[in-house]
Amino acid sequence: MATAAACLRALSLVLLITSTAAFVTPSSSRRISTTCETKTSTSLAGTIRFVGKASANVSGDAILFNDDDENDKSLSKFLSSDASNRILLGTDDTKLISSAGDAIYECYQGGVAWFGLTLIPIFINRIERGATAGSFGSQEQEEGRVITSIEEARTDVQGGGLGSALESAMRLSEFDGRTIVTWKEGESSYHIEGDLVLNLTIKLPRILPLPPGFNAIGSKIVERTCRERLKQNMIDTKNAYIEWAETPTTK
Q1: Global pTM value
Q2: How far apart are CA 12 and CA 4, in angstroms?
Q3: Please, how many CA atoms are within 13 Å of residue 173, restricted to the half-sphere of its CB?
Q4: Which residues make beta-bridge pairs with 184?
């Protein structure tokens, strides 16, 4: 999921140092902004669909250059390589399924409290990369994009505060979505942007009594989870990049 995979610390549901690299530490490591919105759709009988969207970004005042051995330590190199996969997936609990073409992983996301239950989303995530050279004003910049999408998903459920009927419904709940990470970097700065879309669809038995405010509270849970995890993922992406750039390249 964000990185969606995404970002992804997304609903889980989505991105640290001795060195021989020449670098300048960014002076604004906490510069970050976020937005988020959710909506609930009940257009299908017996189905509730929570739609969460979030955006976050982080910038650095200086970039890392090539190290003493002329190894590329740019942000573009990091986000275009497998070294950034763990951050893009938003979890350490991953298993590589396929590396032919786009990398595909099975990912266990962090638990989410849900009306007395704990949901453990398990995503099959695909990482798609693409980068282009561009310009910004008079300054040449590297631009790129990575998409972490949910190809398949299932949900493990722990606890049982509202009984087995809701637990069974949540086990059959469906996730879909993606996290898009884009970046620009020039000679003096870089900027990373994350955009997350995460949908949770719950098919409920008609006779299942729901707690008061289920839709409104559920929307707030999705909104908070998307916003907070994407924001943290942007911070983690920046920290992981700095750690990677400072780590000597193994020959």
Answers
A1: 0.74
A2: 9
A3: 27
A4: 143, 191
Tokens at 153, concatenated: 């998903």
Residue partners of 71: CB distance under 8 A and separation at least 6:
21, 249
Residues 38, 58: Cα–Cα separation, whole Å: 22
CB atoms within 10 A of CB 138: 5
In this structure, the chain runs to a length of: 251
Residue 203 neighbours by CB distance under 10 Å: 14
135 by Cβ neighbours in 10 Å (0-12 / 13-18 / 19+) ranks as exposed
**Beta strand residue intervals within the chain, DSSP E:** 32-41, 47-60, 94-98, 103-108, 112-114, 117-136, 139-159, 174-185, 190-203
Residue type, 34: T
* Tokens representing residue 195 in the block: 């955009």
> Token pair for residue 201?
């669809």
Per-residue model confidence as pLDDT tens digits over 36-90: 455 555 444 478 888 899 999 999 866 656 656 677 888 988 999 999 999 999 9
Can you point out the beta strands (E) in 61-163?
94-98, 103-108, 112-114, 117-136, 139-159
pLDDT, tens digit, 9 for 90 and up, residues 137-161: 434 567 899 999 999 998 888 876 5
Residue 171 tokens read as 């086990």
What CA–CA distance (Å, rounded) separates 195 from 7?
A: 8
Tokens (6 digits) for 103: 């990398």
Measured CA angle at 232 (ends 157, 28), to 5 deg = 175
Return phi, psi of residue 36, to 5°: -155, 150
